[in-house]
Amino acid sequence: MNKVKIGIIGAGRIGKIHADNLLRHPQAEIAAISDLFAGPELEEWAQARGIAIVTKNSEEILNNPDIDAVFICSSTDTHVPLIKQAAAQGKHIFCEKPLSMDIKQTEEAIEAVRNAGVQLQVGFNRRFDHNFKRVREHIQSGAIGDAHLIKITSRDPAPPPEAYIKVSGGIFMDMMIHDFDMARFLSGSEVEEVYAQGSVLVDPVFAVHGDVDTATVSLKFANGALGVIDCSRKAVYGYDQRVEAFGSKGSSVAGNDFPNTAVLSTAEGIVSDKPLHFFLERYNVAYIEETEQFINSLVRGDAVAVTGEDGWQAERIARAAKLSLQENRPVKLSEI
Amino acid sequence: MNKVKIGIIGAGRIGKIHADNLLRHPQAEIAAISDLFAGPELEEWAQARGIAIVTKNSEEILNNPDIDAVFICSSTDTHVPLIKQAAAQGKHIFCEKPLSMDIKQTEEAIEAVRNAGVQLQVGFNRRFDHNFKRVREHIQSGAIGDAHLIKITSRDPAPPPEAYIKVSGGIFMDMMIHDFDMARFLSGSEVEEVYAQGSVLVDPVFAVHGDVDTATVSLKFANGALGVIDCSRKAVYGYDQRVEAFGSKGSSVAGNDFPNTAVLSTAEGIVSDKPLHFFLERYNVAYIEETEQFINSLVRGDAVAVTGEDGWQAERIARAAKLSLQENRPVKLSEI
Amino acid sequence: MNKVKIGIIGAGRIGKIHADNLLRHPQAEIAAISDLFAGPELEEWAQARGIAIVTKNSEEILNNPDIDAVFICSSTDTHVPLIKQAAAQGKHIFCEKPLSMDIKQTEEAIEAVRNAGVQLQVGFNRRFDHNFKRVREHIQSGAIGDAHLIKITSRDPAPPPEAYIKVSGGIFMDMMIHDFDMARFLSGSEVEEVYAQGSVLVDPVFAVHGDVDTATVSLKFANGALGVIDCSRKAVYGYDQRVEAFGSKGSSVAGNDFPNTAVLSTAEGIVSDKPLHFFLERYNVAYIEETEQFINSLVRGDAVAVTGEDGWQAERIARAAKLSLQENRPVKLSEI
Amino acid sequence: MNKVKIGIIGAGRIGKIHADNLLRHPQAEIAAISDLFAGPELEEWAQARGIAIVTKNSEEILNNPDIDAVFICSSTDTHVPLIKQAAAQGKHIFCEKPLSMDIKQTEEAIEAVRNAGVQLQVGFNRRFDHNFKRVREHIQSGAIGDAHLIKITSRDPAPPPEAYIKVSGGIFMDMMIHDFDMARFLSGSEVEEVYAQGSVLVDPVFAVHGDVDTATVSLKFANGALGVIDCSRKAVYGYDQRVEAFGSKGSSVAGNDFPNTAVLSTAEGIVSDKPLHFFLERYNVAYIEETEQFINSLVRGDAVAVTGEDGWQAERIARAAKLSLQENRPVKLSEI
User: Fold this and answer.
1) How much is the ipTM here?
2) CB contact under 8 A, C226 and D197
3) Is the link from the previous residue into B65 a cis peptide, with omega within 30 of 0?
4) Is D328 left (phi over 0), alpha (psi -120 to 50) or beta?
5) Which pairing describes strands A240-247 and A147-155: parallel, antiparallel, or unpaired?
6) Is A4-118 a domain of CATH 3.30.70.20?
7) Is D139 within 8 Å of chain B by CB?
8) pTM for this prediction
9) Is C259 an 8 Å CB contact of chain B?
């Protein structure tokens, strides 16, 4: 493939980000975009970007023989049906995380992809973050020796609205799924057992929906290493995304990104600006890279960087963590 | 009391450190030191410091009516008997951690102290560390709001010799007991439940003695906050002692201390020196402060900063952690 | 003006950077590009970007009535003639620094621009750097009170080739001119006197061409503040670009940018990656912002952010610094 | 010499600091202390430290045949006469900086010391600072290659009282003399020429006494390296003492020391505590080391670490800087 013709399904915030990033790639061409609420506004937006087809009906994309690949950026409940349809049409797929809320459905989607011989990349954008990639390199190059411990901190600047909380699938499936994937990405080993603690400390609305807003998850990896993830829906000082890998020959620790390096010293103390506010700022370049690599994989015929299996494994860990919290006991992945 | 006359029991490394720190205090006077292996070397050491009595027999200290307070720096199995004897003689006590390996014995020691109306300070020196004190102030002043999460990293530069491992009481009682106390000190809340993960990744000798060398412990506090501690017997880059408190209004994070601030930039990268090597370097000032405050408390008649109850609580958490690891389940403190 | 049609004169590295950055701006349209060595390669490059006209002759751009603004990215000796021609044709101008090597010529160019009523922005890209902008804000907001001292460090990772050194105009006009502008930008005050020290420590080739490779310049500002700039042609650890402003109420210090925040700790020490390598990496976003703001100024009819007068003042300081070094004495700007 | 018997002349703040630091040294014994204003308070202070002789008359120390060495901590105008007398009595000498305000007198003092065959250490305590020592090691080990540039920042938290300013000898002799010595200490090369800028920006009282409160000094070293020092009498955020050495193979940069490493992140920003307040806090350990090394040198018969010649050279640079500021021109050291 020399040029990849793309259809985007779902024109929400993340769909539009992927679109703008794809426009930067000389071998990507966005042929169509669909959204249930497509209207004049989206048409204008699409026209300014030279996207010819704007439709309310995703079928127009899925059945369009000119389209090589689809970006599935619609709500989670639509992911699996859309993946199956796209696979059936022989289209490569980029799908936002999680693939689904249901492991069995996820497995069906992966099987459909496998049978169709198409590629499926899952939107674990953080794998493309400059900081986390460097920590992984420090592990893979042997710089820190055998990994003994993986630590991940993941805190959002503010909780989502209640409408979102209600359908989010809970903190493990919605938010920590990124961290579960990061744990696998960094350690290069599978998670075998998890133990989750959770608490409602930010806002009682989470309790109303059977969710928690603050959680820690302990991990045991197949290679004997241990892991700890901590997560909060609200860090008032901004998006807090850090990882630490500790091993037999050293450690690699990655902190946040900041809008600038200026440090103000006054009679009150030494002050610097807060971290980049949220995922759009922090992972701006990571989003660009994940679409670039997806396109490059298709053009070169290489395997994609983050597969359906990666999505499935992260979902299994999320499921195990939820069960662990419910039953207050360690849960083996083999139970899921 | 205007001047405190002190007898030191146990002239090992830590006993001598306390002695030298006591010499700096204008209201402390070291009257005697005892050690099972006292000999010419210790006599010379004592003479250079103006310590009149050197003996193999701790009874000479315990029965000496001129002595107001004892520092118990002998092996852990002697702590409880010595505390009881000292209390019976009406002497105030500074005792190294842990008070004992047995909760019941610890309770007896505390009761003896209470009945005798003397003071008992436990050697949790890290409470006096400049960094950790500042984090606690950030919590107590309300600067970070309600505490949601306490994180503690505690890694030694190198494991102890096998002879020590054998009698150490295990990683939870020997090493993490400091961190359990730190968790209580920082959060200002009691631990109600723990879950421990452990692994032998540093040296198989730990397995030989039924111990682990790498561990994480998840904590639930009475006030709803969560906690995570990670611990390793070997960080090749040096003593790694950090804490982090995260709350509704912010976070307070304290890192390591370094021998200097010099940063070398070359074609190979940006390099700085490793953290202060081990506890003697890192907690040098903290050791001075803990003896100072003990003496000050006795002179003023104030309560000591770290009580027998603090020692007892930390031991209970250590015991619970050990049980949790053995049975791979969360353990409530109320079980202990 | 709703859309700005642009012609780029000079298709070297910096011309192409500006072109790519202009392509991101919805109200900019690149109509033409000229280069003395235009050929098939440039034509292909232009075609991929939808640039219709590719020519060896800058007159085709200057005489094209459809073109609203020109980017002058050719060699320094062509700047003034091109500015005059463009002004005469009523075109707005973005010109790389320095405007010329000759103050009188620079004045003529500025006068031509003034008479024609067009806008001229000079390519002092560092004014748009996120770090330096924040320091300036700290000064302008009063956060550090009255400025007492401005310090600038400016070191390149490697010296340019001899061919460039020969025609560069010397370290003050070629390299430190950015720092002289930064000094004015930060302090908000004019430089009244300079004293320069210089030495050939990097490579004797600089001496061959009457230049130095290491220099410091002391500044006196009209508002009484002092300044110091240090400059080297070769910092083996990478591009070193830092500023510091010190005042009556505090200081604001901005450091380098790094490719990631990962810190590797091993038995050898604590290591992080070197700063972003050179100006293309460090000032990537600053280049984008300077073209954005230029276009925005034209569209809105606002004054540009960096004027011809700014270019002229920086050149005067460079000239004074050169004279100071030659005569080893402080030189007043009024002498120039 | 196995034990050094010491007399301290001048019981002000710095005399008492040296006394307390000497008490820590097992081979130092303070035999006497003198002060013009000696009274009951000083007697009590001395008694608590086991110092037998307290006198108003320094002659009692200088003529006491039991005393091996004197610490001269009295006012600057008394330094030279006291050095001469002590040397004549065959006593070793530790003298606070500057040796005198007059180069000729300083030379006489040094000659007296040389003729008497005694040792003279000058109180340039910063040479013993952990950070600056590490930078010097980075230079001397070749880690940064040939030194090209030395940068020193030296700012006090608050200006001294007017009574002190009046007799201080001015910013160069009183304050920057430390930095001039540091420049020599770091570079390992002699200063050959200086150029000074100065301004009264902190308090007009400095102008009243012909002094400045803000200054920069440019240096040329014999080995071709350049230097820049900046100095202020008032940094509201605390004692700001940093150095930077830049060379052919890299740089070594040392920052301030802080009371703790805790970083508070809130909705307002990222905050840490101000640097250690002033010289007593920052150079606490350096003061201990300078007395230790002085005693060790006497005991071993080694040369002292900082000689009278070092004091003399720093005074010459101070004198040259003052002349440079007065005449607004670079001044060669050979003129002094």
Assistant:
1) 0.94
2) yes
3) no
4) left
5) antiparallel
6) no
7) no
8) 0.96
9) no
Residues 6+ apart with CB under 8 A from D95: D71, D72, D79, D82, D83, D120, D121, D122, D123, D311
Residue tagged 């003006």 (tokens) = C1
Q: Return the partners of chain B (3 or more C-beta pairs < 8 Å).
A: A, C, D
Shortest distance, CA D228 to any CA of chain A (angstroms)? 22
Which residues does C255 contact at the CB level (< 8 Å), separation at least 6?
A261, A263, C131, C242
Task: Measure CB to CB from residue A148 to each of B201, B228, B328 and give the nearest one.
Answer: B201
Decide if D66 touches A, using CB distance below 8 A.
Answer: no
pLDDT digits (tens, 9 = 90+) for C39-97: 999 999 999 899 999 999 999 999 999 999 999 999 999 999 999 999 999 999 999 99
Of C252, C266, C267, the CB nearest to A264: C252
* pLDDT for C155 beyond 80: yes
Residue with tokens 């603090």: B310
Pick the residue from chain D with its C-alpha nearest to B48: D26
Q: Which two tokens stand for residue C143?
A: 């956060």
Cβ-nearest to B134 among D135, D249, D262:
D262
- Any CB–CB contact under 8 A between A269 and chain D? yes
Report d(CA C181, CA C190) in Å as an integer: 10
Q: With CA atoms as reference, report the closest residue to C36 among C50, C48, C54, C21.
A: C54
Strand A28-34 and strand A53-55: pairing? parallel
Cβ pair D232:C202 closer than 8 A: no
* Chain C partners (3+ C-beta pairs within 8 A): A, B, D
pLDDT digit string, tens, across residues A278-327: 999 999 999 999 999 999 999 999 999 999 999 999 999 999 999 999 99
Mean pLDDT across C195-212: 98
C18/chain B closest Cα distance in angstroms: 30
C-alpha separations of A120 from C38, C133, D326 in Å? 43, 43, 76
Residue C98: asked if its preceding bond is cis (omega within 30°), the reply is yes
C127-285+314-335: CATH superfamily: Dihydrodipicolinate Reductase; domain 2 (3.30.360.10)
**What is residue D101's three-state secondary structure?**
coil
Which chains would you list as touching A if contact means 3+ CB atom pairs under 8 Å?
B, C, D
Domain map (residue ranges) of chain C = 4-118, 127-285+314-335
Report the gap between the CA of C260 and the closest CA in chain B (Å): 12
Q: Does A303 touch chain D (CB under 8 A)?
A: no
